[in-house]
Amino acid sequence: xxxKNLKERKNKLDxxxxxxxxxxxxxRYPERIAAARQITGKPLTLSExxxxxxxxxxxxxxxxERGNSYVDFAPDRVAMxxxxxxxxxxxxxxxxxxxxxVPSTAHADHLIQARVGAESDLQEGINKNSEVFNFLSSVxxxxxxxxxxxxxxxxxxxxxENYAFPGGMMIGTDSHTVNAGGLGMVAIGVGGADAxxxxxxxxxxxxxxxxxxxxxxxxxNGWTAAKDVILKVAGILTVKGGxxxxxxxxxxxxxxxxxxxxxxxxxxxxxxxxxxxxxxxDDSMRRYLAATGRQxxxxxxxxxxxxxxxxxxxxxxxxxxxxxxxxxxxxxxxxHLNGPFTPDLATPVSEFRAKAExxxxxxxxxxxxxxxxxxxSYEDLSRAASIVEDAVAKxxxxxxxxxxxxxxxxxxxxxERDGFIDSFxxxxxxxxxxxxxxxxxxxxxxxxxxxxxxxxxxxSFNRNFxxxxxxxxxxxxxxxxxxxVAAVAISGRLDFNPITDTLTAENGEQVKLDxxxxxxxxxxxxxxxxxxxxxxxxxxxGVVVNVSPTSDRLQLLEEFPAWDGQNITGARVLIxxxxxxxTDHISMAGPWLKYRGHLDNISxxxxxxxxxxxxxxxxxxxxQLNGExxxxxxxxxxxxxxxxxxxxxxxxxxxxxxxxxxAAMEPRHLGVKAVLVKSFARIHETNLKKQGMLGxxxxxxxxxxxxxxxxxxxxxxxxxxxxGKQLTLExxxxxxxxxxxxxxxxxxxxxxxxxxxxxALNLIKQQEN
Length: 769
Fold this sequence. Notes:
Pfam family, one: Aconitase
Protein name: Aconitate hydratase A
Pathway: Carbohydrate metabolism; tricarboxylic acid cycle; isocitrate from oxaloacetate: step 2/2
Helix content: 25-40%
Largest sheet: 7 strands, mixed, barrel
Number of helices: 26
Family: Belongs to the aconitase/IPM isomerase family.
Catalytic activity: citrate = D-threo-isocitrate
Strand content: 15-25%
Distance between the termini: 35 Å
Strand order of the largest sheet: 22-27-28-29-32-31-30
């Protein structure tokens, strides 16, 4: 089938992907919102409108309690990136369906490493990952899924440009799916098993979120950018303050932001643990939709515009309608740098020097990076390029290397046409990387990183956990706006404040950088020659998807065993994780990305980044079979071979970060039976449930300290597993004493059925038969 590029599509009347689906969503809005208002008896927030119009049951028949009710939803579409799509589609192949039930796409953006520059890196990525890309191309072709090829762009930027629409609901197998909130969606990051449910035509379950309202007043000025809004919010709410909540932005300040700026803010909502974030439909969204060839969406949305934002009463008296309220005056907001090692350590640039010196953070910067799904829009590049042009005009040479990852081929092509890429190249050591995730997810072959030297970098990405960008645990990564990243690249120092500080030009003159200037949208419109989209076959029944049995990259899945109905007894503690244990600690990215389609091979990275509370080391746990210490995966494989069950114990917000379902599938594959922690990050807890594992929390967090390295663990009442009923665990110590620990869980009856069947997918297959 001949591929149609974006320019050709735009010459047609049906300019928008899935416009008929979007119109059907809008047609049901008035009736469903009227039903929701009648049931709730009050005005509705935007978040509530979208949730209630996407109920699986149709019109609301009962009010769903925030933070308590489990609700079945019917999302409009599914998006997957290549690293997670492999496992999601391997699972979908087991579901016995001929075609996906909702519009779905897969995007090749995670597997391309940044090293030399765009052209050579892209070709090397294609060469190294051809088996995976060919698999994704064929499986998408067979099952009616759109495929965006390597180089097409970063999933969330491509979704914003092509698929996101006001008032829609989508799920995606990446935690930053929330980026689509910039166009007024409720877009939520999920594990692959959730995506399989929706693609298979099943309901998608979510606990009804609580609502956090963020009222934005005033208007940004000078060096302040949309990125600074979410950096400020992250400092207020912390990495877990948004857990179980939708963050809804409103107010005159919200309306003053561009659609891509709104996307930036929503994108980093993942870093505060929020279910998602969103904005009401407004003129900035109209402008962006029209500029990206979707005037037909604007025309349809305008017919129900009153339903695509919160009710006026809500925004007039927000304290009555939100569970928490934050107010930020954009006129007073200043640029921030967040970090290191956590995205919620927020510091205004004016206070950074003192804070850095007090903490011993290295101030000199060798690398400054602009891009990622968070900040790689046309507007972002234009504003950063203006800083570079100003420095060149004033005779100031950059001290750090500037790396650029454009968000999509459309953004790159248009930015190149308009001269921004040439602007960056005026810095001799600038690197233009592929339209892909690159350094943001650890796909960066940074020269010298293996030395492990203490250093600092600055980037416009979203996450800055230790080792995430370059694999060096001593790299202090700081998050800022593209404008600030460009300024720091020029100065070479993190403590450079462009609002007050000067730079030395080549002629010795002291100069100040001008405030950034940029364009929300290209004056001459977006352009692209080949956007990299592959449309699926109308009939994929004849398409063959081959997976070699000898491949080390791809492996067909086997069913996880069903629960035997008995209490788990004689279990061992594989590891008690100390402190922060994100999905990067549980299943690292970087070089391990190549095994995302091979469950057994990638299981060799299981929990190798977690700190063992018993010796404060990583990847070193006691093997209870022989008393020796070994690597976590090796010890767990020994337990599995011996038929001995095991559990993992963890700290607060366990599983924070990416939607990575491998972090749940690996322990399940290797025989871990339960994960018992102080608290969970939402997506990871759901992923554990979907894979047929027990995700439990200490009823008394102090009981974490009672779990000893050599304990034998017995479940005393798992055979009575029921919603709302605590489970009782017995920890028998080597001296013969024991502690009884009560564990809470959030399983409803449906989720208990997943556990009994061995996984949610097992249950789907049983129901099909």
